[in-house]
Amino acid sequence: MMRRWVSPRMARWLSGSLASVVLVAAVSGVVGLLDSRVPVLYLLALYVLVVMSVAIRWGTAAAVGAAFLSVATYSYLFLAPVGSLWIDDWREVVALAVFLVTAVVVGELAARSQRAAMESARLTVEQAALRRVATLVARSLSPSVVFEAVTQEVGLLCGADLARMERYEADGTVTGVAVWGTVADQLAVGARFDLDGLSVARDVRRSGGPVRLESFAGATGTIAREARALGIRSSVGCPIVVAGHLWGVIAASTTRDEPFPPNAEAQIARFTELVATAIANAQARMELRALADEQAALRRVATLVARAAPPSAVFAAVAEEVAQVLSAADVAVVSRYDDVDATVTTVAGWSRTGGPVPVGRTVSVSERGVAALVLETGRTARLDYHDADAAGAVAAEARALGIRFSVGAPISVEGRAWGVMTVLSTGEDPLPPDTEKRLAGFTELVATAIADTQARAELRRVADEQAALRRVATLVARAAAPPAVFAAVAEEIGRLIPTDAALVNRYNQDSTHTVMGTWSSTGHPLALGERTLLGGENVTTLVYETGRPARVDTYTADDGGATTAAALRVGLRSAVGAPINVAGRLWGVMIAGSTREEVLPEDTETRLAEFTELVATAIANAEAHAELTASRARIVTATDATRRRIERDLHDGAQQRLVALALQLRVAQAAVPAGFDQHAAELGRVIAGLTGALDELREIARGIHPAILAKGGLVPALRALARRSPVPVRLDVQAPTRLPERVEVATYYVVAEALTNAAKHANASAVYVVVDTAAGVLRVSVRDDGVGGADPTRGSGLVGLKDRVEATGGTLTVKSRPDDGTHLVVELPADSGEQPPSV
Questions:
Q1: Bridge partner residues of 391 (DSSP)
Q2: Which of 526, 505, 512, 534 is nearest to 608 (CA)?
Q3: Where are the domains of the chain?
Q4: Where residue 839 falls among pLDDT bands split at 50, 70, 90?
Q5: What does the DSSP assignment read for 225-241?
Q6: Cβ atoms < 10 Å from Cβ of 97
Q7: Are 706 and 717 in contact (CB under 8 A)?
Q8: pTM over 0.70
Q9: Phi, psi angles (nearest 5°) of residue 333
Q10: Which of 11, 261, 666, 792 could crosslink 798 through cysteines, CB 3.0-4.6 Å?
């Protein structure tokens, strides 16, 4: 009961006074025993011991009281008149005064020495405690270990019955992070209290500085009631400030009546600095670890991007890495916007629980969700699905799944909103403030992956297109037949453009069109050569009418046109056409058709146009080649006809007259009388000259157009050439009895020219001639063993042969390496449709 009304200061004064009385009484007893042996004034020094003892234990004030009590007692008991405080001898008064001053001074010195010793001991203990805590901080131990050590050291250093460290929460509560003391078992670490009444934590938060509470009597609030239940009478606390922000509080409490010493706040404050350092270091380590984890995650995703991984793999990796890096997130989702139907589709997802994320799920952007907010603002967005603003099916589904908070960041590709990356949390606390910033690094990688993929796809598309164009251009450069070019173009377009059918159609003068080349991936037959009447809403008719590219997104059965009906018959739903112009006139149309609901890409017309130019070139080349071949054929035919006419004119005219003249001369020679031998000899010389001229004329006529070729055919004509050749000829002819006249004439002149060259220029010892037919082609091979080196480009007779052969529709090849002979190969169409000459 006395503790309730006696203050600690009064109790200290009373105990000091009682101690002074006891000690003075004891010393007085000693002085009384020594009084008969030692001079009385000398014994006064013994009372100094009383003053020093009281000063050391109870301080200077108590020591002064003890000094006066000692003087009074000594004067009363030992100085005359004994039993009275009056002193007769003035010298004794001076001695008592000197004693009193000396005792007070000695007491003060003793008190100061004691205080210094106690302060030194306290500082030693405090420094040791601080050193122990600093060692823990320097070892980068976990904050919880530091919190427990600091709480214990503060409690021991302050002599507290309870020490507690608490962290302020964003919701206005305080959470215990460490506790120590005799009543610590009644408090749980992690317990959360409201700051709704009197408490050190509340006052520290309000003031931002140290707080001392001397009593909790009558105080309201959870913490005050808890303190009274634990018997706590007073508390002192100091704030923990981390990086300029109030983080928490360290409080020391006691169940005793004596308050904490005045320097308690300073002692605790020195520990708060270490705690703040430990927290800052832990946060720095956590941030560094988080940054390292984030950089490692970004590096892994960047590696996938650099390896040109498919976008689906990049999306899945990003979703998982984001959820792993953001520990507060439970689900991460990557979604793509669709501008056409205003929807957002999930393309990848990851869940911390391992549950499935509905990839491919599509929702409307009109639903109030993070994806809609990001698309609307073009910036990051946050949403609490428990708020009244979060309405709609998306919010209802989120709440049903236990999801409360979500953060979304836009994925922009080349300045266009491509999609959104979203993280979701089922916890009670919002996602960290830096979530948007950390998401941005991943969205940039996703955008890079998408852009790279699009660039690679575009590059691949361009490369494929150029390769296709190059293949078609090669056919055109090789003067391939138009049907082969049409078929190749249709196939290249069908494989290059995402289409199901490709056609090359030619317009006819009777308002019809003919299918010249086709390709199909559906298996539906596209009739090559089919002739269809123009008309209706279809690209073939639209291009014919406008001369420009055309597009039909949907073919309808009620169109009524024959061309539309043909398209529907093979399953086409839409088509794109581009005109084929040859020499300034509309020749036909190139078509790409689709059986799917999706319309063909916007650049289909442009891509078709690049092929139409090649088709037009092929057609123009074919027409030019046909005209050139026809022109050559006409020239060769006219030349052959001229040769035959000259040969016939020579045979029927000059040769016959020369033969008649020769006969007349022989008759005249026979009629020369005897004795005119000189005249007969002269006539003989004239007859011989005339016969030689006739033979030369016959040889010329035979070279102009051999009669044996017209009468006997190719085999006897070649045998005649072989017999007349000055170089031995090995002849092997496996050919029909008769061939078209142009083929026979061309073959004859080829062999004749080759044999002439072998005799005049090759210095050959043998010539090998092989003639055979296969698959409607006559093949002529003439090879010699001469010096080689023949070059048709230098204007030799081979140039004329090449023109003759090509005019006949054939080909001529010459191989003539130096010192390796000459090999001439000719291929001619053996069944050109021309009737062979009659025998």
A1: none
A2: 505
A3: 2-118, 140-287, 308-458, 480-627, 707-839
A4: very low
A5: HHHHHTT--EEEEEEEE
A6: 11
A7: yes
A8: no
A9: -135, 140
A10: 792
